[in-house]
């Protein structure tokens, strides 16, 4: 028991001592509360107010996981008082909807999530080990998590479907989302207003490298959609101005509908990467797998090393697989113990230790927004 006396001269020491004693009780999200190991791969995440949604793909060690879409309290650690750091997770929208063996209508393997300003959760479900097609499902977080709509992507390869980003600019035809990578140098456009989808085929010059789109980000300063993907070191962009005003190909084409768009090659990143996010200052964030570093590229400059800033490089952050912005526009990274597709070398620390170990926290603040900074 710690006794703190009343004299003002001892107040600071007592406060510090209380803080240190409480630190062991501050915990990260408790994955064991939903029968998952603590080192579970949480591939993507999204935020809505005080709620976080985690995509837990049924890949590799998660293959037999009971849950594939999880809700968690946000922030991960809200304060340092005993009993107030809620770490218990839960299934979303419910447990029965995640029974993959029961029916293809249930969630099979959630690989990406995003939210929009209207309180809708967009979920990309892309199983790899059965015959169920990929699908997108929308839930209304303002109305008791009711399902709004769903759409199947019949005939689309699910092998590399790993990213989904909702366009912050609502087009003439309603809200849209972009999905990658269908593994044919295209991206999927899903139009909520039209309740249909089509392929946007990425046209490149003969001297431009192969295009990957397992990571997508939409600029908040321009009309650019950024594309990249592991293991590529190339970064590409697509101008969305025309696409936002276009109705899309004829609806009668259904699953065969497609359009062409020209892709620009922006250059070579600092290395193979995971995660991609465009901030309000025109910067583009990504995590360099080999260096285990989160960097920010100044999008107003060319894609060279001198126009990058290393924002985070720590032993307790071995891998960031996704980024998300909170209501204060601060950027957070989703921390995992290893890179799911990386080699053994990629999953070792600079000291040669394996990173397949428990993590102190699963989210980390990467970038603090300052509206007065350039």
From TrEMBL:
As for subcellular location, the record says: Secreted
Q: Report the protein name in the record.
A: Uncharacterized protein LOC107265820
Instruction: Write out the entry's keywords from A to Z.
Output: Secreted, Signal
Q: What is its main location?
A: secreted
PANTHER family referenced in this protein's UniProt entry, alphabetically = PROTEIN YELLOW-LIKE PROTEIN (PTHR10009:SF18), PROTEIN YELLOW-RELATED (PTHR10009)
Gene Ontology CC annotation, any one: extracellular region
Under Pfam families, the record lists:
MRJP (PF03022)
Source taxon at top rank: Eukaryota
According to its UniProt record, which protein family does this protein belong to?
A: Belongs to the major royal jelly protein family.
UniProt keyword annotation of ATP-binding present: no
Record-linked SUPFAM superfamilies? NHL repeat
What the entry lists under InterPro entries is as follows: 6-blade_b-propeller_TolB-like, MRJP/yellow-related
